[in-house]
Amino acid sequence: MIAHLRSIIFSLLFFFGIEGIISFALLGEKIGIAIIVALLVVSVFSGYNVGKKIIYTFLPLAISASSLSLLYFIDDLGERQIFGGFVSILFYMVLLGIKRICKNSFDMTARSFFSATLIATVFLFYAAIYGFYINFDISLWIFILVHFIFVTMVTFVSLRAYSSDTQRVLLYSVIIGFAMIQLVWMANFWPFGYLTMATISLMFYYVLWDLVQMVFLDTLSKKRIIITIIYCVVLSLTVLLTTQWLLVG
User: Fold this and answer.
1) Nearest alpha-carbon partner for 62 in 141, 101, 110, 120
2) DSSP letter at 189?
3) Alpha-carbon distance values, 67 to 72, 80, 87, 122 (Å)
């Protein structure tokens, strides 16, 4: 109950911090920067306070950094406030997922809840990083490096719920990280907006993560592999056929 209350308090602090950033123009630059720093500190502290391990600071910090980045691409004040409410709820769910997975890492419900918040966090990151890469002059190697570090770290944090073998978890995390940067390199030539790129990347990441998850749970089979791949292909085609292509003449 106390841990649950702490999650609510930290989430409220996060919400007020996001709302403060939304009012950045009214508060002034110095106050805005101070709020950003405070928000990042709260994110790190909340993850450690709830999870009792350094690795659990990564997801709350990733949500904060990604949310702050995405606010740059939202112009309408009302949409910003809606987005602030959404990421605050996600922040709370991440803390709750961390609490539940720490309490009982073998609880399948806790794993599912934690995995769902993980996927949402990954999407926020993808949307933010693709948004900056497409709209600003950022070197491809920096983009790939940041992507690799994030994917490896977030995968490592999530797979720790399935195994206490650190070396094995790290190995699979690095493999997924390298696999995803291949996709990132190819995505450099795709004529899509950042949200479409984020959606496609998320689907491919989920497929890889789900396959590795099945390896750790010892439930991997040819049938499940085929179903997962078909699922990914169908969703990818749906996104590609319904999105606007940014053709450059």
Assistant:
1) 120
2) T
3) 9, 10, 7, 11
d(CA 13, CA 76): 23
DSSP labels for 5-73? HHHHHHHHHHHHHHHHHHTHHHH-HHHHHHHHHHHHHHHHHHHHHHHSSGGGGHHHHHHHHHHHHHHTT
Find out whether 44 and 65 touch, Cβ atoms under 8 Å. Answer: no
Whole-model pTM over 0.70: yes
Per-residue model confidence as pLDDT tens digits over 143-200: 888 889 999 998 898 888 787 788 999 999 999 999 888 877 776 676 666 777 888 8
- And the tokens for 16? 């007020």
pLDDT score at 133 = 81
Q: How far is it, in rounded angstroms, from Cα 56 to Cα 72?
A: 26
DSSP state of 139: -
Nearest-angstrom CA–CA distance, 127 and 196: 8
Q: Give me the count of residues in the chain.
A: 249
d(CA 121, CA 216): 22
Q: H/E element holding 107?
A: none
